[in-house]
Specification:
Blueprint: H1 4-16, H2 19-22, H3 36-48, H4 58-67, H5 74-85, H6 94-122, H7 127-145, H8 154-163, H9 175-181, E1 189-194, H10 200-211, E2 217-221, H11 226-238, H12 252-266, E3 270-273, H13 280-288, E4 296-300, H14 314-331, E5 335-341, H15 364-368, E6 371-376, H16 378-381, E7 389-399, E8 405-412, E9 417-418
Parallel strand pairs: 1-5, 1-6, 2-3, 2-4, 4-5
Antiparallel strand pairs: 6-7, 7-8, 8-9
Helix pairs in contact: 1-3, 1-5, 1-6, 6-7, 10-11, 11-12
Length: 419
């Protein structure tokens, strides 16, 4: 019911944190620490926090501890601080670690309460009075465990008022799409739906390339490896056909273009993950505790995400994943663009153009998404229409904050470049 190593990591994170990351301690009580010395170190850091612009100075901290008459020789305190600092914990994980210590504190309190209950059972005391005491302690524990969720409207009023008159600039994607959607905004969940091999992954990679020049991009690929994505980016930028990148049939001029493409790719703000068994909770933690402040997350594709715990069926599983993505977009203030398969029933319809109802396995996808883009290609069904450049219809079938409509964008099949 305690974790001394984790307590050390929290203190280390606080000593390495800047004032902004250190703010997490303002609403943190010292009793989350089980170890007495750790608790005293934390109390000193909390006292120093409002008056320190940079990192906490360990020499001054040591003097503060001595002034307070903390028991223990100087070498013991210095040894403790040295041991803690050798851990090099990222300050970004502080909220997560502190939350874990809070849970351990509750477990300790519950254990203490259970001992009191056993003592009450064994004693010949007033049961009504005993039950009342237990109830009061449980209510107090409940208050400590549950974070405050309701706030008075005036707490957010000032921020909204100050933002009035300031233009909210959306994130621009592809010009033809932006003319309908107006762009995408942080906090939005966008679905790109299509049948296999229509161009979902290609569109996501194109968007990641376009946006990564001035935005930080996290790309989670559950189908393609990192190397496959890089091959596609090289082909996209160099205009050397994708299939020829893996052959010896490359001219000197093309090789120069490939080298230049690699230089450009190395400067893009794209971070890749190709874990094919990743869960939404793992993506959430990866983004939340990263040292990089991400603007947009791409997931390719939704149906391959691993389930969290048990689900009654596949529909309820996808429903939960969809809701978790929406919550993640809002909580982390990022745009999330997710590829999604469409139902196989599309193949049996006379009109092959997909509709919102064709989103696979759950109506919650349509409900949770802020935007839904549905892709269609005539050459997918009529091979006689397949040429080097094909037309992709992108139906903006849902747009919570703007217009809907259809745009037609050329797709160069040799290097899977849109537009």
């Amino acid at each position: 019911m305690h974790n001394i190593d984790l307590e050390h990591e929290v203190i280390c994170g606080l000593l390495l944190a800047d004032p902004e990351d250190r703010k997490v301690i303002e609403d943190t009580e010292d009793d989350i620490f089980y170890d007495d010395l750790n608790r005293e170190i934390f109390k000193c850091i909390k006292e120093m926090h409002p008056y320190v612009d940079g990192k906490i100075d360990t020499v001054i901290l040591l003097e503060k501890l001595k002034e307070k008459g903390i028991k223990g020789e100087k070498y013991l305190l210095e040894g403790k601080l040295l041991d803690i600092l050798y851990r090099f914990v990222s300050p970004k994980v502080l909220p997560y670690h502190i939350n874990t210590l809070k849970k351990l504190r509750i477990k300790r309190r519950l254990f203490e309460l259970s001992k009191k209950i056993i003592a009450m059972i064994e004693d010949d005391t007033d049961l009504n009075e005993d039950i009342k005491k237990i109830e009061e302690e449980l209510i107090e524990l409940q208050k400590k465990y549950n974070e405050k969720k309701l706030s008075h409207i005036k707490e957010d009023l000032a921020e909204v008022y100050n933002n009035i008159g300031e233009k909210i600039v959306p994130i621009k994607t592809i010009k033809d799409i932006d003319e309908i959607t107006g762009g995408i905004n942080k906090g939005e969940f966008i679905i790109v739906g299509a049948r296999p091999s229509v161009g979902k992954s290609a569109l996501l990679i194109n968007l990641a390339y376009i946006l990564s020049k001035d935005k930080n991009i996290a790309f989670f690929s559950l189908e393609m490896s990192k190397k496959e994505i890089i091959y596609r980016l090289i082909s996209l930028i160099s205009q050397v056909p994708l299939y020829r990148l893996k052959t010896a049939d490359i001219s000197d001029e093309e090789m120069d273009r490939i080298k230049n493409a690699c230089i450009e790719i190395s400067q893009l703000n794209i971070y890749l993950c190709d874990n094919s068994s990743i869960k939404i909770s793992e993506i959430y933690n990866e983004i939340k505790f990263s040292d990089v402040k991400f603007d947009i997350v791409f997931i390719d594709y939704l149906q391959l995400l691993q389930k969290e715990g048990k689900a009654e069926n596949r529909v309820s599983e996808i429903t939960k994943i969809s809701r978790d993505i929406k919550v993640m977009a809002r909580d982390l203030d990022i745009a999330i663009i997710v590829a999604s398969q469409l139902n196989r029933n599309v193949e049996n319809k006379v009109e092959k153009r997909p509709q919102l109802s064709d989103l696979r396995e759950s109506g919650s996808l349509e409900q949770d998404a802020d935007q839904v883009w549905l892709l269609f290609r005539e050459d997918y069904y009529d091979k006689s229409k397949r040429k080097e450049i094909v037309e992709v219809e992108i139906d903006i079938a849902k747009n919570r904050n703007g217009k809907i409509g259809v745009v037609k964008i050329p797709l160069y099949l040799k290097n899977l470049k849109f537009g």
